[in-house]
Amino acid sequence: MDYKPVPTVKDAAPFDASQDAQVLRAAMKGFGTDEQEIIAVLVGRSNQQRQTIKAVYEAEFERDLVDDLKDELGGKFEDVIVGLMMPPVEYLCKQLHASMAGIGTEEATLVEILCTKTNEEMAQIVAIYEERYQRPLAEQMCSETSGFFRRLLTLIVTGVRDGLDTPVDADQAKEQAAQLYSAGEAKLGTDEEVFNRIMSHASFPQLRLVFEEYKELSGQTIEQAIKHEMSDELHEAMMAIVECVQSPAAFFANRLYKAMNGAGTDDATLIRIIVSRSEIDLETIKQEFERIYNRTLHSAVVAETSGDYKQALTALLGSA
């Protein structure tokens, strides 16, 4: 199946950066802040347009727009707005860095960001990360993870995956499916190295074919095999790759559901996915969420959030 990503945020037309800069300045000047104006302007523009507004704002007022926003806003609402102001790849790098800072590592965040990217996207993240933090991403990640999970992420980060311009090879897919079967279900124990190699090297279109061949060969889905053969973070990473190969929207819908299900809300994940996918496939994710969970993503977000934070997220989601 061909994945058709539909965003919720697109370029605004007509677009007047100077007018937007004036509106934002007026919204933050004097006593009080007009949060609704800030949401209307920044959510209603694409990231590229926000960068233009930021440059015009600085030129016209000799002030840094992001610093002004940080001074005026607070809490989770600030996290959303400041996230929107960052170029997309920088935003993901910041999230990766935060997931490895301090005590403990948020493996789920590493999986969500790294296992879902094509080789082309990964190359951008690696370059910007090192530029921003003066340390290679692979090096930092190696110090924060271990075992076969570390090995898989290292392979992904070092860019061994075939590019999207690599032709799909049906004969090779049969061979790769057979290798996966021999490394897992067909033997006692699991040869994780084989799983790591194929899951990190093959392009997503190639893997789609491999998974079809696997089912043909073994009578089981690759998901069933991974469930039997893997555990903990490696299991999560493998499943993320499989889900993204089949439907990125379903993977992110699932992550959003988990972020809001049960006691408390994982706001960091909620914000990260809605902000980072808004110009990629958030509309598609909304449709998948409703299909899988029989309720709208909009209604789930409204139930879990409040105030300006809720207004910003629902504005990014677009029409309910």
UniProtKB/TrEMBL annotation:
Matches recorded under Pfam families: Annexin (PF00191)
InterPro entries: Annexin, Annexin_repeat, Annexin_repeat_CS, Annexin_sf
Keyword annotations of the record: Annexin, Calcium, Calcium/phospholipid-binding, Repeat
GO molecular function: calcium ion binding; calcium-dependent phospholipid binding; phosphatidylserine binding
SMART domains in the record: ANX
GO CC list: cytoplasm; nucleus; plasma membrane; vesicle membrane
Origin superkingdom: Eukaryota
Comment field on protein domains: A pair of annexin repeats may form one binding site for calcium and phospholipid.
PANTHER family: ANNEXIN, ANNEXIN B10
Family: Belongs to the annexin family.
Protein name (record): Annexin
Species, as recorded: Drosophila erecta (Fruit fly)
